[in-house]
Structure formats: structure tokens, C-alpha cells
């Protein structure tokens, strides 16, 4: 998975740290029998409103755009597949028989990588101090996801995959409490450059 960051002129602000509750999604039933082929392309249906994401945002941020770092991660292994009763993100630890049936390479389906990256990034001192403006994730299928920096990422891989599966189907996920009207995750239009500030400095692009 590749990634690069973008920076703007740093603004002065007070350091503010707020404790957040970890959110666990309800575990989706995992059934590998009668599994259907992987969804590799096609448009996702739009929903009238995003689903609600429980939990308390890490920081109370205003709607105004603030200077900060924008992270872009590419080639994330987030692939949605249809199983008997639900859609799920392919996870080699849970879908062994499914991957064997469709002759899928285990190394090509690693949602744990982007999960670990997001947990560490959004728990970093940079983010706790309000230094991250936004995070964009582009999947290996070309879908582009915008993630707000005050999102509480589920600590377990299963919870993270359930959240992403819900995102792919609903196209957005809203927060609760003070951020109940704000979308913490949403599918956005490509290319990612159209969402970046003009004149931003690119660092680590490959």
C-alpha cells in the first residue's frame, strides 16, 4: 500500500486532548457456504442518508478548514464480496474456503494493513493536537474514501471490516453526539487531487 502526505502552512493552536470511547460494530454473521463471486466493479447505489456511527469523536472540530496535513493512502486491500446473507470485506483469517474456491491469493487481500495504519495515525500526537486535516484512502479497485480525523477506528479487525462493508453499501457513515450530523466516512469522487488544496506540497509521493 502506497501513501503520501500533503502539508500547508502550520497554524497556531492550543493542544487539546479528549478521551474517546472505542466503538465496536455488531459482528456480522460469517457464512462461507454458497458464497458468491467477488464484486470487482460496478457502481454503488447511493443512499439518502448515511448510517450512524456510534461513539464519541476524538476532538470537537469546527466545520472551517484548518491548515494541517492531508494523508493519502493508495492500493488499500478493501474488497467487498457477497456471501450467503451479507456483504463482507474479504479477510484471509475468516474467509479461507471462499478464497480457495475463487483461487484468490492471500497476500493480495490484507485489510489488516490499512486498519493498523489508520489506528496508529488517528491515535498519533499529530492528530490529537489537531494537526491532521483529512485522510484519503484509495482501494485496489479504485474507490476513494474520505476519513475525518476525529473518527474512532474500531480496535478489532473484524469491527473495522464491518464498518468498511457498511460504508461501501451506504456510501457514508455519520457520527453521534456532537458530530451526529457530520459524515465521518464517505465515498468521494476520483481523482483525489480534486479534493486537495491548491498549491499543497506533496511529500513522499511514489
From TrEMBL:
GO biological process terms on file: rRNA base methylation
Region (Disordered): 1-29
GO cellular component: small-subunit processome
Gene Ontology MF terms: rRNA (pseudouridine) methyltransferase activity; rRNA binding
Biased segments, Basic and acidic residues type: 9-26
UniProt keywords, alphabetically: Ribosome biogenesis, RNA-binding, rRNA-binding
Pfam families reported in the protein's UniProt record: EMG1
Annotated InterPro entries: Alpha/beta_knot_MTases, Rbsml_bgen_MeTrfase_EMG1/NEP1, tRNA_m1G_MTases_N
Stated family: Belongs to the class IV-like SAM-binding methyltransferase superfamily. RNA methyltransferase NEP1 family.
Protein name, per record: Nucleolar essential protein
Lineage: Eukaryota, Viridiplantae, Streptophyta, Embryophyta, Tracheophyta
